[in-house]
Structures are given as C-alpha cells and as structure tokens.
Specification:
single chain, mainly alpha
Amino acid sequence: MEDLKYKFLGLINKQGHGAKIPVVGTTIDFEASAEECCLEDDKKIEDTKTEQTLADQEVLDSVLPEYFQCDGFDSAMFELKKLPPVLNKQCIDDVCSQLERQHRVVSKQVLKLILDKTVVCEEEFARVLETKKLVGETVDAVKRARTDLSMAHQHFTTASLGILANYRKRTLVLDLLRSLNTIKTLERTEARLQELLSNGDFPGAISLLLECQGVAATYRHFACVAALSGKLQDTLDMAEEQLDVALSKMCYKFEAEIYNKLQAAYSLLGKTRTAMDQLLMHFTSAIHNSAFSVVHSYVEQNNSSKKQYNELCKCVQETDFIPCLVSLCQALWKIVSSYHEVACWHQNHFSSSTPSDDNFESSLNEQYVRQKLKNGLDRLWHDVQTRVSSLVLAVNLIHYKVDEFLQVLAILHRLEQIGKEFSQSESEELQNSIRKQSILYFRRYHAGRLDELRIFLENEVWTPCPVRPDFSLIHLQEFKGLRCTVQACSGVGSSSSHGSQDGSVVGGGAEGEGEGYFSRFTCCTSSTPFDTILDPNPLGDSSFPDSINEPSGYFSEESEEEGPELHAEIARSDRSSHNRYGKKSMLGGETCPLLTNTTLTVLRHCGKYLQMSRLLRFIAADVFVCLIQLFEYYLYSVHYFFASDLPKYQIEIPSSLKLQAVLKRIGDSLIQNPSEPHDESGQTVPAANISPDVDLTNSEQLFGLQERVVAVESLVFLAEQFKYLRPYLEQLLSASKHILTTFYSETVEVAPEVRHPVYSCVSHRSVDTQQALALMARVNWEVSDVMSQHSPYVDTLFRELQIFSMRLNEIEEHVHLNQEVLDTLWENVVRLLSFILVEGFSISNKCSNGGRALMQLDFTQLFSQVEKLCTLRPLPHRDFVDIYVKAYYLTDPVLEEFIKKHKEYSVKQLQALISCVCQGNKKSKQRLKTLLDEWDKLGMR
C-alpha cells in the first residue's frame, strides 16, 4: 500500500503539469457500474470486484517509475523517445491504448482516495470554523484591556511614579559605587601579587589571582574590567612561569618548605599532574645540562660549547679525567639526591593524607604521581649512566698508574652502589663501560707487571728484606681496604667484630657501610659521597676501624708505637703460620720471614689485583688468572735460577713428577720462546736471567746457599700467603672455583718441593764426588781378613762434611736456616753419600768376603759420623747402600729376582754385582748380564 500511495502522489504532481483527471467521466462510469452491480447477486459482485482490483493492480504495476518524479518530467518527450526509429501505426496505437488504460486506472484510484478522505476533511473544516470564532472573542478581550489600561494611565498619580524612579536611580548608583571600588581593588592587586611571588608565597599568590579572576568574571560587563581580565591572565601566566622556575631549582637542591608551597600552588591551579610531568622533564634537563657544564669546564677549546656531549668528552685530557669524573659524579649526585628527596616527600605526603571516598580526583592524582615517580627512577638513573659512561669510554686510561686506575674504579663502584640504593638498578650500562676500559687497561697493566717482575728478578741479589716477625700480606698498604674482609674469611678473631660492618665477606656497598648514602649525605648538606674519593688509598673502607693508623709490616722503631692492641691481635693470628720462616731479629729471638723486595713486589701486585677483582667482579676470574701468572713466573724463575747448575756427572736432582709437570706447563704457556719475536699482547714473557752479582760458584759460601735459601724460602712464604688468602678467594671467585682449586692443588702445593732440587745443587757440589770415587777405586776389596779399620776415603768424605757443617753455621749467622732447610740439605747430602758408596763399590768387579765386610764397615762408620752432624733421625737412604752390600751374599737364583726387582740401581752397578757374585761361574754371569741387558731394553726393570 505504501508503494501505491507514493505512486498516486507522483501521478497527482504529474497532472499538475500536464493532463487533467477526467473527474466527470469517471464518476458516471463508476455510478453506472455500481447500478449494474446491484442487479447481480452478491457473489458475482464480489468476484467481479476482486478481478477488477487485480486487473487495476496489474495496470498500476506496469506504470514506469519515471512517471512518479515530482518535478521536471516531460511525459510527452519521454514517450516520444521510447518510439522506435521506424514508426509503425500499430505500435503507436498500442502505446496510446496502454497509456489511456494506465491513466484511467490511476484516475480511478485517485478518486477513490479522495472519496475515502471526505469525512475527515469535513470534520477538520468544522474545527477551523470554531478556531475562527475563538480568535474573534480574544480580539474583543484585548481591545477591552487596552481601553482599561489607557484609563488607568490617565488617572495614575505622577508624583508616586517619580518617587519610585528616584529610588531606583539611587540603588543603581550604590551598585555602581561598589563595582568601582571592587575594580579599584582589582587594579591594585598586581603589586600584592608580585610581593607574594617574590616572598615565595606561591599558594597565597595563586589563591589571590584566582579570586581576582572570579571577581573580574562577575564584572566583565565593564569595559575596563575586560582589559583588566586580560592583564590578570598575563599575571597568572607569569606566576606559572615563576612556579616552573622555582620547580626547576628543586632538581639541584631540594627544600621541603618551598616544595610544599609549590605543590599547594599547583593544586590550587588544578595542575598537580602537569607539575609532576614538568618536574621530571626538569630533572632530565638538569642531568644533561649539569653533565655538559662540568665536562665543558675541563675543556679549553674555544668552540667546545658547540660540540655534542660525546664529542666534548673526547676533548678531556687524561690528566684532567679523574677530577672531571669526580666533579661529574658530585653534580649528578646532587640531582639524584634531590629526586630521592622529592620521592620521600611525596611518600610521606601520601602516608599522612587520610583517604576519602569523596575526594576521588585527589586519589587519582596520587596514583598518577606515584607511577610517574616510580618510572622516573629508572629513566633518571639511565640518564646518569649514559652521561658517566660516555665520559669513561671517551678517555684512554691504559697509560694510567694503577693507583689512578683504582681511583677511577672506586668512583664508578661507588656510583654503582648509589644506583642500586636509588633504583635497585645493576647499572648494566655503567658496568659495560667499566668492563671495556678495565679489559683494555688490565691487559696492558698485567703485561707491564710481568715485565716489571722480570726486571726485578734480573736485578734481585736475594738478600732478605727486614720485616716484622709477624709480617703477613695484610700489613701491606695495598691490602688496607681488604684487611678485615680477608681476616673475616680466614676466621681470625677480629672477624666477628668487623664482619657485620663489612656487610658481605667480599665486596662492599651501601649495605656494607651501615647507613645508606642517601641517609648520610642529604641535600641539606654540602658534602657528597665523592668528596673523599681522591684519597691516596681509594679502596680503604672507612667503615673498617683499622683503616687508620695501620701497624706497618716493616720493621722500624716507629712501628712499635702503632696500635699495640691491633698489633697483638694480628700477631696472634699470624705468628703460628709464619714464625718458622725468616732470620733472627732483635725482638726476643723471634724469627722474621725470609722474603725479598721482589717477593714484596709480588704481594703488592697481589693486593692491587685483588682490589681490582673486588671492584670488577665481571672480570675477577681473568684478574685471578693473571695473579696466578705472577706466582708461577716467580716459581719458575727461582727454579730456573737455582736448580740448573748441577754438574752433568752428578746424580739426577730429585724432583717430583708433579713439580716437573707444573714447570713444563709454565714454560709452555707463560715463558716466551727466545727464537720467537717479542709478544706485544703480554700473554708470554721472556725468561729472566739471574743477576751477575749473584755468585753460585764460591765453595766457601756453599755455592750461593744464602741466596738460594732466601729465594726458596721467600717462594714458600709466598705460597703460604696464598693459602692464607684462599678462603677470601673462594668467596670472591664463587663462580670460578675450578680455577682456584687447580691453582692450589697443582701450583701452590708444589712450591715447597722446590727445596729439593735447589738445595741438591749445594749438597751435591759440597762433596767432591770424583775424588771420593777415585779414592774408593784404590781400595782393595779382595782382602782375605776382616778389617778393623775403615778405608781412608771415609775420613776424606767426613772432613768434607765437617767443612760443609761449619759453613752452614757461618751462613746461619746471616740468614736463619729453619729446620726444613737443614733437613733438606742433609737429606740431599746423605743421598749423595749413598750414591757415592754404591757407585764406588761397583767399581770393583771382584770382591772377597773380607772386602764385603770392609764395605759394611765403611758404610756404618760414615753414616755414624753423619748422624753426629745433622738431626735427621733416622738417616734416609741407608737401605740403598745396605741392600746393595748384602746383595753380594745372594746366590744365583735369588740374584736374578733381585736384579729384576730393584730398579733403583743402575745397569753398571748391577753388572758389578753380578761379576762379584758369579766370579767362579762364568755361565751364570753371562746369563744374568744378558737378562739384565734385555730387561733394560724392554724397560722391565
């Protein structure tokens, strides 16, 4: 129906422009049809209406949509355009018939719709007539009212209206006077605002400004007030600028009172969040501007202000780097400390504020500020790291002295501790810069220390350095900052009192120093954590009670007056392990450790290396490997100097397989091959040459025994010091314990074994082996009777041993020979005597029973005399001679088993034994010698 409705409307509009609806004709046709329908029965009429309706609907549907356009449609032209190019009368007639049929149906439908709405139209027309009647009555009422009003106006009293008019004027004038007074007050407010701002009363100034703006809004209808409103807005903008300037100053020095006023002022403005955003930007700018300003002050170039920060850092001279770094850290500390104070202020403010459900906006602001401050911690510390790292990486530090480099490490280490306390940050960017510089520096530094150690060794005359009887490495200045930590790890009595102060066994930090840095150094004080960082001993921890007035490790009269209580405590802990090394001193007959300047140099390097390891945990293992090389080079050099001068005809120097393996490993990995070019990387170092001032050939001085003892015992002392450090190193190198274990088990443990080869060179050269063997070759071992007198060579050997003993006593007047040294010397002497006796006995191929008894007599006599000269009980190596002499009494079958079992005797000695035992049995002698040669070739003995 809706579609049909719109079609009808379109058709009506169309009729307005063209043909008219044939109303009369259609009505007649319709009435005629109605009369005819009345004559038929009801069913037929109904069917006819239905068919007619359907036919009319089909005709309506066939009407083209163009006919329903509202305006601008030309139906005649439209139909003409539809005709074919070649006209056909029949086609034109058909089109006309169709159009007439469509027109008739449309007209019919329109008429029907008009008839359906006739009743409604009549009702509406009746209402229009009623409305016209009411309007007429209203007009009459209005005319009567106007007439009455005119009459009242003519009869009203003129005097009464005059009084009312005057009263109204008076009220208006009073209102105007109050407005003028208010405007005058507004004009004078600017001076008061400036006064409040200059006095720092920001909340009062903002409150007054806002009040003035509210009043100005009330009187904005005055032209002068409109101008004043603009001026007040300018004043407000200026006040906000001053607030921002005051806020930026909080980045450099926080003042709680001023900051409290600033926050109150921003709260009145409703800009609490904006204030926090501005403050964080000011902190970032403060970091960048302060860093640039500090670095620029150490650069002398005229155009340096135009350079970027990274380029400016490269212009800092090496001599100015440490002062520049300290100044930079001091400036950045003030900014970081101010940020910490700001965070604490807000935390206290949030804690003291009472939560309220009504103040929802305030709660949102607090959450916003908390989150901003939390995020700002990481960003601010990242900026600090970036500024410092850029300066650290821009300067070449490889030419710095170790103390200067340690100062740099101490500064950066303290900065790391501040970062950890400030934002729980590990300062990875800062650590990376330290790592890069440290690796470059330490490679060159270690190469220089190895070369320096080589020079020390080549110029060392091996004279003992006077030290205290209780001297240990903790008395050295290089261990000043590590003393309590090392003692705590080693279980010394003072560890309980100092352990809590050191925080952790290894390391340090804000936690280890009791109070945090932000508690000890506040914005209110002018001091910073970096003020004392230029101390000559930068790693000395001020939290250690013994970091001042240390007892010196060197023997002097002044040192006796230093810290008696601490001295006694350290002495008790060290005397038990160190008193057996050293020379006699004047302190109650106590012995002092034997060590040289080179030994002290190694220990000092050890202290510096450990200081670096403490600060450079990430390369601690590499530093310790270099420290191992110092000890290994010292061990290798001592062995190379004093264990390589044994005459070729002497017996082999006794040396354990473990020691030989260690020496070979050191030689392959650390000692540079002379035929190769110099190693610039410092991974290898040339072997040192012994000083020409050291004489190892003078027999009266026992072939340099004093120097040998000082060298070897200083090495043993050095090994003991490394053992003392082991608990500390285990904690320092907790992630690289395999390196530590290997070093101690393979290298440190074999250091005392160097005594045997070194002292053998003295013992073996103190007895004239060739002379003794020549005298034994003259002895007749085929005597028939048992002799009661020992052979003459025994007396010769004994006289040489007496001379050896006397020279030992003379040397002991200058250098204390501890029991280990004496026992090792005499053990080597006894070994040599055993070799001489067996070798001398094997010279003769014939021997009688009397000769065998003489051998036993000489052996017994000589060893009994040796027992009087030394304290070895029992004498070692007796069995070597005794078993050999008794073998002369063995029969052929037993002798064969003896030869196969006893591999300690040489082939020559066993051949002599076979010749003597098998004197009357050539067949057995030949068989045993043949078996001996075969077993020797096959390695079966």
